[in-house]
From TrEMBL:
The lineage of its organism: Eukaryota, Metazoa, Ecdysozoa, Arthropoda, Hexapoda. Residues 1-221 form the Reverse transcriptase domain. It comes from Cloeon dipterum. GO terms for biological process: DNA biosynthetic process. PROSITE patterns: RT_POL (PS50878). This is Reverse transcriptase domain-containing protein.
Length: 432
């Protein structure tokens, strides 16, 4: 029945409804919003108001009676199919169990059934004619992802008047707005300037708050509309927290660890990248890259303060930004080229002796549960030079001033293994 319903009604679902429709996604909805911001704010040089609506308990409240009447009105279903749909949309009884007792039965006559395969599509169908509201407001656009909706217009008055009609439209379907959670943004050129005194929105005696940022379908928008630094910062934090939760990562083989990164961490950090890519700054790309460098350092048993270039060389792994550009077929840009050039320059600065370290010569430490991994990777990165050098000040490379406090000989960065006075093993040094 679910497939039958979809095939019979899909042509009625408007093109601006991106939720629970095959071939449509949150990313496409976000792309439409970004395109509209670009067109109105940066081509037409006008501010764009975006009203983000929150429908109170939308799926639990929508009128079943209204849905059934509309299904009948399409004339696309047989009597037998309508009888089946009527039975599915009929009132049902709910009970609540808390493990000790069972509540009295509660009659549920509104809302699409939770978890039902047809429920999201039936909700979309209930709103299938929503665009008719805006016939008299050609400058107002609406983007929908099921019950996530945003009204767009350069005219705040048009937003206000169309919203009043939309509230009545919702009421006819037993839906209502949660005004406390509805927010409005004013997108303007580079986010400059303050809100005007006239930038207020009160509908049905309910004030709607103006905000400087809003998370729409998982993407953080700022008042410029084309700066996504806060989105990147939020996703980077979430991805690093996901990495921190992987307690057994240092014991995994490196190949397994990289697969875990691709499956469990990268999707968190890269969400929305297809849309926001053209607007990312060099700072944004550098920040996003820290997701993989922090992950590699944990997998390699290195300090988060260790130079990232060394972690990439030890793991023989490509840059995160480079992988994303390839994976999503993202276009090259001066910012991307600058990022890659900077990373390659940093790698060119690595001491050639690094490539002769045991960890670079013998890769067996990359295997699962390799107990000496931490000792070998740390030796490759800093040679335990700080344990032997007489110099007290912090330094990251050996100079002629570096003298071994054990043998009094001039020492290079990897003197630890060649010093005949050193009795410590790599494992002992790593555990100090």
């Amino acid at each position: 029945m679910s497939n039958r319903l979809y095939s019979q009604l899909i042509d009625l679902i408007p093109a601006n409804q991106f939720g629970f429709v095959k071939g449509r996604s949150t990313i496409q909805a976000v792309q439409v919003l970004v395109d509209e911001i670009n067109f109105v704010v940066y081509e037409q040089k006008m501010p764009l108001y975006a009203l983000f609506l929150d429908v109170k308990k939308a799926f639990d409240s929508v009128s079943r009676y209204f849905i059934f009447e509309e299904l009948v009105g399409t004339g696309r279903f047989s009597v037998g199919e309508l009888n089946l749909l009527a039975e599915m949309l009929d009132a049902n009884l709910l009970t609540v169990r808390d493990g000790i007792s069972v509540s009295e039965s509660i009659v549920q006559s509104n809302g699409v059934k939770q978890g039902g395969s047809m429920s999201p599509f039936l909700f979309n169908f209930a709103l299938s004619d929503i665009n008719s509201i805006f016939v008299d407001f050609p400058d107002v656009k609406i983007i929908l992802y099921a019950d996530d909706m945003v009204l767009l217009s350069s005219s705040l008055d048009d937003i206000r008047r169309s919203l009043e009609l939309l509230i009545d439209y919702f009421a006819f379907r037993d839906l209502e707005l949660n005004f406390d959670k509805c927010k409005i943004m004013k997108f303007r050129n580079k986010g400059r300037g303050r809100l005007a005194k006239s930038d207020t929105l009160i509908v049905k005696n309910e004030p709607i708050e103006f905000v400087s940022e809003f998370t729409y379908l998982g993407v953080v928008f700022q008042s410029s509309g084309i700066s996504f630094s806060k989105h990147i910062a939020k996703k980077v934090r979430a991805a690093i927290l996901a990495t921190a939760a992987l307690k057994s990562l240092p014991k995994s083989s490196l190949s397994t660890a990289l697969k875990i990164f691709d499956l469990a961490v990268a999707p968190i950090a890269s969400y929305g990248i297809q849309v926001i890519w053209p607007y990312l700054t060099l700072h944004d790309l550098n920040k996003l890259e820290t997701v993989k460098s922090r992950f590699l350092k944990k997998a390699l048993c290195l300090s988060k303060f260790m130079k990232s270039r060394l972690a990439y060389e030890l793991a023989d792994s490509e840059f995160f930004i480079e992988k994303l550009a390839s994976q999503f077929s993202l276009p090259e840009s001066p910012t991307f080229d600058k990022f890659i050039d900077n990373q390659l320059f940093k790698i060119s600065e690595i001491d050639p002796a690094f490539y002769g370290a045991p960890a670079m010569v013998d890769q067996s430490w990359k295997n699962v549960c390799y107990t000496m991994r931490h000792a070998l990777t740390r030796h490759a990165c800093h040679g335990f030079h700080f344990l032997l050098c007489k110099r007290k000040i912090y330094h990251t490379s050996a100079t002629k001033e570096c003298v071994c406090k054990l043998c009094d000989k001039e020492t290079d960065f990897y003197h630890f293994l060649s010093c005949d006075k050193n009795d410590l093993s790599l494992s002992q040094a790593a555990n100090l």
